[in-house]
């Protein structure tokens, strides 16, 4: 539940922003971009270093352009997410389109009542992409999330992400929930975002954007434990406020693949997604803060 202060002061402000037309929201977003980028310089050193190491082949001017475009997109995502409070399904579908192949791919599993795992990265507007499943399909989804330390915003995001339906579960309770669903013959789509920074000792390590990178291997472990097919969902920005979602099958039979192969495939699909539109990944995260341990799980 919300605190009284959040309920009286913050929620009305958020709902007020959400009712504004997009052209006003993007004007406000551009103003915040100026503050965040030029005045505050939020994590600018981290962003600059990440981009430089990821794209050594690009010129300083090209990397600067990616940097500025990232900050504008970062601000847009914040306000686009708030807009979800009042967006209709029709409006959402116009602005977040799932391509025909993706719809057919997902539906082919749903027709067989097959549980699957959907994985994506922090690309484009990942918050929109994460709820697209509930908008396009009449099908259960089990979205996995990490609770925030701020209880007010944690509850706010929980309600926002489940607005169009969906079963949200914290990572620590995921296995218990999936076993319950399996025992009761209830199929679901397990939604994961797999580009967080995992503990280096237990991660799968590979070369990602020209750097040794630890990959969260929970997706692979989950797929092998339940032998569920895995789909990578790509996110492409068409223009400001408009996105297109695609789908690529990572594996239909995960238990037949060698250890590390699933992690390798979906991380390379993410890398391809980033390279196509490099400004629209979440560059402000410290993804390369760990060094590769000598006893780490190596790439295949």
TL;DR?
The protein has helices at 4-18, 22-40, 44-54, 60-83, 89-95, 100-110, 126-136, 151-161, 174-183, 218-226, 261-276; strands at 96-98, 116-120, 141-145, 167-170, 189-193, 204-208, 211-215, 230-239, 242-251. It is α/β, with parallel strands linked by helices. The chain is globular.
Structure description:
The protein is of the alpha/beta class. The chain has one domain (4-280). Helices cover 48% and strands 17% of the residues. The protein contains 11 helices and 9 strands. It has helices at residues 4-18, 22-40, 44-54, 60-83, 89-95, 100-110, 126-136, 151-161, 174-183, 218-226, 261-276; strands at residues 96-98, 116-120, 141-145, 167-170, 189-193, 204-208, 211-215, 230-239, 242-251. The chain has a 7-stranded mixed beta sheet with strand order 1-9-8-2-5-3-4, with helices on both faces. A hairpin with a 2-residue loop joins β8 (230-239) and β9 (242-251). It starts with a helix and ends in a 24-residue tail after the last helix.
């Amino acid at each position: 539940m919300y605190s009284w202060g959040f309920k009286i002061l913050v929620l009305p402000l958020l709902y007020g922003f959400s009712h504004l037309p997009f052209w006003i929201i993007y004007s406000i977003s551009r103003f915040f971009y100026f503050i965040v980028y030029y005045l505050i310089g939020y994590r600018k050193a981290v962003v600059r270093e990440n981009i430089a190491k990821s794209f050594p082949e690009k010129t300083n001017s090209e990397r600067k352009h990616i940097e500025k475009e990232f900050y504008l997109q970062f601000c847009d995502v914040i306000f686009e997410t708030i807009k979800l409070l009042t967006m209709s399904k029709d409006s959402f579908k116009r602005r977040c389109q799932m391509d025909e192949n993706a719809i057919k791919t997902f539906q082919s599993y749903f027709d067989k009542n097959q549980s699957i795992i959907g994985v994506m990265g922090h690309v484009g507007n990942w918050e929109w992409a994460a709820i697209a499943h509930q908008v396009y399909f009449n099908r259960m989804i089990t979205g996995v999330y990490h609770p925030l330390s701020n209880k007010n915003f944690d509850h706010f995001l929980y309600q926002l992400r489940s607005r169009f339906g969906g079963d949200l579960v914290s990572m620590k309770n995921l296995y218990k929930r999936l076993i319950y669903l399996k025992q009761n013959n209830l199929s679901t789509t397990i939604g994961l975002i797999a580009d967080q920074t995992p503990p280096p000792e237990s991660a799968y390590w590979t070369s990602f954007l020209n750097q040794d990178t630890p990959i969260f291997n929970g997706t692979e472990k989950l797929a092998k434990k339940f032998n569920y097919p895995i789909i990578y969902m790509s996110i492409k920005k068409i223009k400001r406020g408009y996105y297109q979602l695609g789908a690529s099958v990572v594996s239909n039979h995960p238990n037949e693949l060698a250890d590390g192969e699933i992690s390798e495939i979906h991380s390379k699909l993410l890398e391809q997604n980033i390279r196509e539109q490099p400004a629209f990944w979440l560059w402000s995260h410290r993804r390369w803060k760990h060094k590769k341990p000598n006893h780490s799980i190596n790439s295949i």
